[in-house]
Write a structure and sequence with these properties.
Largest sheet: 7 strands, mixed
Strand order of the largest sheet: 8-9-10-1-11-21-12
Structural class: alpha+beta
Radius of gyration: 30 Å
Number of strands: 23
Shape: globular
Distance between the termini: 42 Å
Length: 535
């Protein structure tokens, strides 16, 4: 036995030449060195070691975004992609809470000293990502940027005529030209640092994430616990392909019908949420000869089955909208529109208005009854259109559809009011204020139907001057009733937001979204499966 062991030993010694023996010894040396360094790091430099290991071990998440990003300054953000990224990097005096109410953020408190005077006090010991303290100067600087026409800010109207003054390092005064109860919502705008000039601008924020790299097709953010990259795509087709190839971990803003391509992939999970600030709406052009007749608008509403429309997405229940208010608004969504689906009543109304059935189409003495619905290319809206066409065809109405590119619809058809009936998405604010959408002074801007009602104007004007919530609720309850009777639009439903994510990401909690960026609200609680090289 002993002789055999000696033989094998001599054989191995002979096999390992001098060259291989050196490599073997070097390997042993570096292994011992690595173990020693780790032991010394843990024993004598625990803070440094933990920082290094945290850096190496930090999880990563890549989100796909369809759209462009030309600025990382919340004052000038105009695209959805810009708004989402800025919301993670910058904080406002206030922010929107889960229930849609406005709560404090950078501000420690605020006081409304009069209907036109607000005093905000900042929290102490708040710092920008570059280490400088956040003060009143930054707030004043931000508001004045919105008021400067060069370059123009999308938020200029929010602070038009507002005088902002620094009281001390932590106190800011806002004086408005007139009472405006929704003003507090405007203070959710991200604050930018005064010490970073626009000429030498770089995105220095105060949020949980800071910008670490900006590439042509990717923006990289970093927090204490996560590297978050937004990969930019020109179209959804490219983004969907990247999702299939595993190049990104999440992709939002998909339609239900785009999910079909990915629903069978075993490593992906679909999240959905109601969008509280969006509605699918049929807008009537009240300058049209047919639609200027209120009774005709009402019968179209009677002939539209919202129950049928909200069944367009199999497996998902869509919430019917009865008013122009955002979903689950504190102003109360319990209002029930008195004009409900009743095809027989709608037929009687058409008869009374002189539109008689002649074969399958109704006619009066001069012409046949024809309505054109303008919309954009979208598979979900296509299904909505099918239901509406079926409903209205049952009345004897000939329905034609005009589909425009989204840019043409947004930049030409809507501004020029070049439509008869418009099927579109309506963006709503968090506050129930509806002035910009329905007040007669806005018929060249947000009031695209051209509605003019003295009663509605008075309610909307008063609603902006009332600060007690219960009194404002009463105002908007009256507004709902009068708007329903005027029937300038048919409010159909609140759409769903769909987000598809790799299953390696766990503990995502998607609540009802106020903003689409709210999908990242519990990002600090996410669990991302990855290999830990130190365990």
């Amino acid at each position: 036995m002993l002789r055999s062991l000696r033989f094998y030993y001599r054989f191995l010694v002979h096999l390992i030449t001098r060259r291989y023996r050196q490599i073997f010894l070097l390997s042993i040396f570096f292994l011992v060195l690595l173990i020693t360094v780790r032991f010394l790091s843990i024993s004598f430099f625990p803070d440094i070691f933990s920082q290094v290991t945290a850096k190496i071990n930090k999880a990563s998440f890549n989100e796909g975004v369809v759209g462009s990003v030309s600025t990382l300054n919340p004052v000038y953000a105009s695209t959805l992609a810009e708004e989402e990224i800025n919301s993670l990097v910058f904080r406002g005096l206030t922010r929107i809470d889960d229930d849609g109410s406005v709560v404090l953020d950078l501000a420690e408190s605020f006081e409304r000293e009069s209907p036109t005077k607000y005093i905000f006090t900042l929290k102490r010991d708040l710092y920008w990502h570059d280490g400088q303290e956040i003060t009143s100067d930054d707030v004043v600087h931000t508001i004045k940027l919105t008021q400067n026409p060069n370059p123009p800010s999308p938020f200029a109207s929010n602070f038009k005529g507002v005088k902002v003054t620094k009281i001390d390092n932590y106190t800011v005064e806002f004086i408005l030209n007139e009472a405006l109860s929704p003003f507090i919502q405007n203070t959710t705008l991200g604050i930018v640092p005064e010490h970073i000039s626009l000429e030498k601008y770089r995105p220095i924020g105060s949020g949980d994430f800071k910008v670490t790299n900006i590439f042509e097709d990717k923006i990289v953010l970093e927090s204490d616990y996560l590297n978050l990259a937004f990969k930019l795509y020109k179209n959804k087709e490219d983004a969907l392909l990247s999702m299939k190839l595993g190049e990104i971990d999440g992709l939002g803003g998909l339609s239900f019908f785009e999910l079909n391509e990915l629903s069978a992939w075993p490593n992906l999970k679909i999240f959905s949420s109601n969008l509280a600030q969006r509605q699918i709406v049929l807008f009537m052009n009240l300058n049209d000869d047919l639609l200027k007749e209120r009774r005709f608008r009402q019968l179209l509403s009677k002939a539209t089955s919202k129950e049928l429309v909200t069944q367009i997405l199999p497996g998902f229940s869509l919430i019917i909208s009865e008013t122009s208010l955002p979903l689950k608004s504190w102003a109360d969504n319990s209002f029930k529109n008195p004009i409900q689906f009743d095809i027989d009543e709608a037929k009687k109304d058409l008869d009374a208005l002189g539109w008689k059935l002649d074969g399958e189409i109704r006619k009066n003495s001069e012409e046949e009854l024809n309505i054109t619905i303008t919309t954009t290319q979208d598979p979900e809206l296509d299904r909505v259109l099918d239901r509406i066409k079926d409903n209205w065809a049952a009345l004897g109405i000939k329905v034609e559809v005009l589909k425009l590119e989204s840019t043409e619809l947004r930049e030409k058809a809507i501004p020029e009011r070049d439509f008869q009936v418009l099927l579109s998405v309506q963006q709503l604010g968090v506050d129930p204020d509806q002035y910009s959408i329905w007040h007669s002074s806005q018929i060249n801007d947000g009031n695209i139907t051209g509605l003019q009602s003295d009663k509605i104007d008075k309610i909307l004007e008063d609603g902006r001057k009332i600060f007690k919530r219960e009194e404002r609720k009463d105002s908007y309850a009256k507004f709902n009733r009068i708007l329903a009777d005027e029937a300038p639009a048919i409010f159909l439903y609140y759409p769903k937001y769909f987000w598809i994510v790799n299953k390696k990401i766990e503990n995502i909690k998607l609540r009802n979204l106020i903003l689409t960026s709210d999908r990242f609200k519990n990002i600090s609680e996410w669990k991302i499966n990855k290999v830990n090289i130190f365990n």
